[in-house]
């Protein structure tokens, strides 16, 4: 019986911690500072929850803070990392500065920063690395002047690869933080 407790308790604790790292709550329009009565409404009947959220976000898109100079950088929604690193590269700084500028100009915008890793390493290690990556992006944005309440850092570790390959090219694509607008995304048209 003692051996079972020694095996089950750490396993259960790890499962609870890992589940908490990847859990996210949907953005409530009222909590996001938008007045539901004046928000643009979109018919989302028959759409999945994600598709409905995306449709509603596009209806509430903003061009405030979007300039000709930063439009290309705002279109980029992924920041990549080197192997076993959570350091931001110089290549991604302009992208993050453009998103910071937009977020500061649009207080109702909300962003989920989702950290990802490649398949190498344990699940626990990759969850922690994904979180460090998301927190590095969050820290940069806050240091630049973005309100921390507009940001949510989440780790998915190695659980959601965008390239299922098992080579350096696939791993390079999977080591990333995605910038996902959940409320008032940039209008890039």
TrEMBL record:
It is found in: Cell outer membrane. SUPFAM superfamilies: OmpA-like. Residues 1-24 form the signal peptide. It is a lipid-anchor. GO terms for biological process: cell division. Residues 68-185 form the OmpA-like domain. Pfam families: OmpA (PF00691). The keyword Cell division applies. The Tol-Pal system is composed of five core proteins: the inner membrane proteins TolA, TolQ and TolR, the periplasmic protein TolB and the outer membrane protein Pal. They form a network linking the inner and outer membranes and the peptidoglycan layer. This is Peptidoglycan-associated lipoprotein. It comes from Acinetobacter cumulans.
